[in-house]
Hints:
The protein is an alpha/beta fold. The chain folds into 3 domains: 6-116 and 292-306, NadA-like (Rossmann fold, 3-Layer(aba) Sandwich), CATH 3.40.50; 121-203, Rossmann fold, CATH 3.40.50.10800; 206-282, 3-Layer(aba) Sandwich (Rossmann fold). 47% of the residues lie in helices and 14% in strands. The protein is built from 17 helices and 12 strands. It has a 4-stranded parallel sheet, with helices on both faces. Strand 7, helix 11 and strand 8 form a beta-alpha-beta unit. It is globular. The structure holds 1,3-dihydroxyacetonephosphate and iron/sulfur cluster. Residues 56, 72-74, 146, 160-162, 203, 229, 231, 245-246 line the site of 1,3-dihydroxyacetonephosphate.
Amino acid sequence: MGALPPKTAEAMERTSGLYERLKSVIPEVEWATMAEDVDAIQRLKKERNAVILAHNYMRPEIFHAVADVQGDSLALAREAAKIEADVIVMAGVHFMAETAKLLNPARTVLIPDQQAGCSLAESIRPEDVRALRMQYPYAPVVTYVNTSAAVKAESDICCTSGNAKKIVESLGSKEIVMIPDEYLAQNIAAETNVKIIPWRGRCEVHERFTPQDIALFREQNPGVVIVAHPECAPKVIELCDFAGSTAEMIAWIEKEKPKQAVLLTECSMSDNVSVQNPGTTFIRPCQLCPHMKRITLANIRSALETMQHEVTVPESTASRARRAVERMIAVK
Ligand code: 13P
Ligand code: SF4
C-alpha cells in the first residue's frame, strides 16, 4: 500500500491485532478506510462505559472488530438482560434494541440508525393481535421477537427461531396462534402436534430463496451442504440438510465441518462464519437485509459520540411486553 495519512497509519497500527482476524474477508486497502472508525469506537466504548451487541448479520468489521457480544436474537436478548455497563449499542435492528430495553430498562439503549426495521415487524399491528384473539379466544398467542414492543404487549409469550418449537410445546395447548412469520409457523407446524394458526408476515430476505436455487447449488457444487434459516419457505426447508436459527446454523457448521456449504440466509453470515471456519468454502448466494445493512462503523461511532438514537418504550406497553419476553426467557 502507498503512503497513508498519519492519522490513518496510527489507527492501523493500533488496530492491527483486530485486523489479523479479518484478513481473509477484508482487503488491507479497505481496512485502511475502516481503521480510524474502529479505533475511535474502541476508545468511545471505554469513555461511555458502553457495550456493543451485534447480530450475526452484521458486517464482518462490526462483528469481529467492535462487537463485545455476538449472537442470534435469543442470545442477544439473554445477554442484554445481564449487561451492567451504562450504555448498550444495538448493532442490529429496531426490535432487537427494544427487546434489550425491555429486559434491561435501567441502561441507555442506542440504535445507530432508527430506520433499521424488519419486514416481519412491519407486517402486524397491536389491533391485528386483538382481532386474532377475538377470532381464536382459546388459543394462546406466541409472538416472534421480530415484532414491535406494542405487538409483544398483546401476546402471551415470545419466541425466536432458536426456541420456537420448545415455546409452542411449553404451553400445553392443542392450538396456538403464532405471529407474524407465516413460514416459521408452517415450519414449526411440521415438527409438532400442536395446531398452529399463522399470520401472513414474511421476511423479505428469506422469502427470496427457492427450491430452484437449491437444485442449482447442488448441481453446480456436488457434495455441498445446504443450511437454511426457518424464515425460508417450507418447500425450501424440506430440501435442506439442516435448518435453525442463525446461532444454530453456525454451531452446525462448526460441528459438521463440511468442505463446502451454502447458508440460505443474509450475506454477512458467510463472511462472519468463514473467519472462524477456514476449512469450509462458502458458496455465497447473496441476499442482503437492507435493514441490517443500515448499521455501519460510521453510525456506530456517531451513536457513541452523540448518544443518539435512544430507544425507549412507554411503561404502559413495556410492562406487558416485558412479561411476554421474560416468560420466553424462563422456558428452559
Ligand atoms: P435469529 O434469531 O435466527 O438470529 O434471526 C433473526 C433474524 O432477523 C433472521 O432474519
Ligand atoms: Fe427482518 Fe428478515 Fe431482515 Fe431478519 S433478515 S431483520 S427477519 S427483514
